[in-house]
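Q: What would this chain look like folded?
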Amino acid sequence: MSTYTIEVPDGRSERERERGIRVVCDEHGEHQEFQPGYRSVAFYCDGCGFEVEIGLHDDDWRDWGERC
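A: My prediction, written as C-alpha cells:
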C-alpha cells in the first residue's frame, strides 16, 4: 500500500497554520491542495486507485498515547 504525506503550510501564527492542506501520494507523486475551511477532504490517486479521506480537527485534539 502506498504512503501519503499530509502537509499544512508553515506559518508564523496559529491562524496562518490553519490555511489549507496539501495531500501527496509519495509513490506516484500525485497531489492536491485543498483550500481552508474544509472539515474533511477526499484525495484520490489514479496510480493507486485508492481514495483517502482525511478529517481535520482543530479542536479537542489529543495525543494518541493517551489511549494506551
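The helical segments are 14-17.
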